[in-house]
Amino acid sequence: xxxxxxxxxxxxxxxxxxxxxxxxxxxxxxxxxxxxxxxxxxxxxxxxxxxxxxxxxxxxxxxxxxxxxxxxxxxxxxxxxxxxxxxxxxxxxxxxxxxxxxxxxxxxxxxxxxxxxxxxxxxxxxxxxxxxxx
Length: 134
Fold this sequence. Notes:
This protein is an alpha+beta fold and 134 residues long. It has helices spanning 12-27, 31-35, 49-52, 63-76, and strands spanning 38-45, 59-61, 83-89, 93-100, 103-111, 117-124. The protein is globular, with a radius of gyration of 15 Å. The relative contact order is 0.20.
């Protein structure tokens, strides 16, 4: 098992700088710039992974697999644009709350001791028109 030294409690300056850089990289569709925020062996979970990457677990590990997934995503949604709404900090994580192509998204990013994302989990808003199903 690999041990990651925890990142110190994230401060507002780091969180805002990271968030702005991350969103700018995505809005420029620059996958290399986006991936520069992540550790080489990071883990990404998203409910869209199964439909786009064909991975039924919804989990991808490592930059190579995630790059392919993100390239497929950008090919499917060439007008992809994120509008950052809120940045929330935790001990070794932050949550980016933004508006994406399909609605509201919350993305939780956990950091290693080097300030790189080691794990990311993406959650998409449930269409509240279907709230009677909840």
